[in-house]
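It is worth pausing here to work through a concrete case rather than discussing structure prediction in the abstract. The textbook approach is simple: state the sequence, then state the predicted structure, then interpret. We follow exactly that order.
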Amino acid sequence: MDIFLEVVGYENFPNAISNTGLQAEYNKALCACDMAVFLVFSKVGTFTNQEFDAAMAAFKNKQSPQIWTYFKNEALYPESIREEDIRSLFAFKKKLKDLMHYRTAYNNIDHLKYQFKVELDHKYPSLFAPAPEKHAEEEGPKSEIVDTASKRAYNEVLSFRLFEAIRDKNDRAKELFEIAEMNEILWQHDVAYRKEAKAIIASAYGVLGVQLRKLMAIGAQDNAVENSHTANENQKNYIIICHLTALRAIQLLCFAMLSKLWDEKSKGYLYEAAQVDLVRRFFNTPVEMPLAGYKKLLLTLLAMFDEKQLDYPMIELKNFMVNMQPGSAFITACDSLNAMSRSAYSEEDCKEAENSLTVMLEHLSFLTNYTMESIKNVEYFGLRNIKQYYVHNYTALGCDENTTIDLSKQQDAPLNTYAVLLKNTKIAYQPKLNLFPFIIDANALAAEKGAKIYFYSSTSADGSLKYSFWEDRENVIAITQSPAGGAADVGGAKFNASRSLDVLTLFEDAQRAITGTEQQPL
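Step two, the predicted structure:
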């Protein structure tokens, strides 16, 4: 069946006086449409509100028109901002929130056109993809086939918006965009450019890139899958990985801020009792905190840094508090992912998860400025009449890095062995931040090659610490205090007593320095 789209705009209506008023004519025509698209920028006027309300009333009555809302991301000049305009924007956003509608943002006209085309692909696939021809030899009994023509494309929104978010921050992304522009190609419409863009995104987000690469792989699998059971399993895995990526991102921010607070212990700052109590609960949680818990921890840590005017471990966090306000796009996306805890998932759930993760990582695009590495050991060289130096043996961490290979570099200063370091690559001479023992490398503790990274998960009643594997929350190891001279078997890796004790001792010291209390079960 052929589908034709007719654009209905008020510019095409006559300006002659109407018995009911021209706006009533516009509303009537709008309600007769199949689709309604509302574009919002600096304000939402009275007539736009009327049109939206009319469209919603018609939709509730007859499921038509289908309604889309797009908000433009662009700075406003202060002199052009009016209080009543801002109020109208917040009122409209509240109206959408009350309708449980997830609004969509766009950066420019190409971004808008691309996003709406993706929507049309989902709703009217035959508009852009011809129906497959049937051949005689295909008749007869068949295994269950998934109609790929009607399936949504995974990662299209994620890859487009994240690439747009990082293209001015990441050299590879900037170069790819400029080459595409030189060749008069819209990168998002070209298969080869899209593939390269996805690889750049996974690489740019460092340790989070491991999860992003998995999301890209699931999208590729689902486009080719023929078994409905496999398709459903892919949907479930897709949402699980979206949630884990968001969790690891927030954990990374929290661990960086906790490490910085720990370093500031000599300044003797006193924090509010409620803030200290929440941090103490993090150190003593008997089960891994969910995304909602880390959201509250991040909000608390940001407040502690702001109130004491501390230097942030990531300079981009200095103004991040605005994104933590109730109802903000970042918090809405975080809450959406946190709420996904079902056993079965639909394509709509996948779409919601993709959109939510996209919003979160757009706000965290500054992570592309940072790299991480795990220090395996440090060797000292001080031969006579030769300049003294240290050799750091380490493993680079990230999607592009081979975490099975150990590297080395010459440095002028010593460093803690087993350290997991975070470094801003855009600021010269900025000290690296040590995230140990909130993040540990099990291979470094076991004196094995390569890296196997674990994030702090929980604290047991006996004082042992549990860590979950960065790629799989179900893969958990426990760090316990071994008998003197003995070795602990942790997930198949042998840690000697001193290395396990280092983890436990430093974790307890971090809690004491930040909260002023010893480790204790809740």
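Step three, interpretation. The longest strand covers residues 370-381. The mean pLDDT is 80.
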